[in-house]
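User: structure tokens for this one?
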Amino acid sequence: MRIAVTGSIATDHLMTFPGRFADQLVADQLHTVSLSFLVDTLDVRRGGVGANICFGMGQLGTGPILVGAAGSDFDEYRAWLDRNGVDTASVRISEVLHTARFVCTTDADHNQIGSFYTGAMSEARQIELKSVADRVGGLDLVLIGADDPEAMLRHTEECRSRGIPFAADFSQQIARMSGDEIRILLDGAAYLFSNEYEKGLIESKTGWSDEEILGRVGHRVTTLGSRGVRIESAGESPIEVGCPEEEAKADPTGVGDAFRAGFLSGLSWGVGHERAAQVGCMLATLVIETVGTQEYTLRRANFMERFTKAYGDEAAAEVHDHLV
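Assistant:
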């Protein structure tokens, strides 16, 4: 399968302040705050849901096509993704804006002050999926992830008009979207991804029940945190898959992106929804054991050993040749 992933491309600049923000605030001067914090550490990490998902798929060898917008400062990030099996030729490079950036300072009490610069992400709405499909010889599935909201709507409408199957994955953007926009984004989707909280929010904002939504999408994939994932389809019994045992719990950031990477890779392999979800849960476990969304290493022998322990010999046999 040729799978394109549309979504944000960003870098995270994470800093640590050894003191407490509260100690620097003067109660009667909060209307005119002017503060500067001398920080101890700076971590620059690659991120963005589109790039994170593609990185995971690249680790699994499924050759994802990243579709998004970045700035002229994207060269180093592009080289990293290229080295890790991601097709970045359809990334739009802005002539005037930097790559989207999250800048955050955390104090000793784990309070945070952060800013998100949208930057080049706003130009994702100018990307036409037809040019992507023409370049690679057609698309079998487009995952429409969190991105510039207008880009998400345009990509969805283009998929419908061109008959390209798509997966709806609102993620962080669901909070700012209206019920009408969410209805447009999910109606007719082959897959609808969300976590449990987002599932309820989708139903609340659209006014559609769970049954009504199942009637409008092919499959509804709901991640359940430490309990794994549930896959539902109208008229069929749900499929539930648990998580492998964790060796550590270092950082949950990017776990959902890793699950999607594994699930989409399983679809690409044609191993079925249960196996695809198991691959997704195994990859997500590697991410939660690592600080950073693209800092994990997929060692295939270790992956298969842990996958077999979690899901059994029959499941392992079905994915072994695809992975190894």
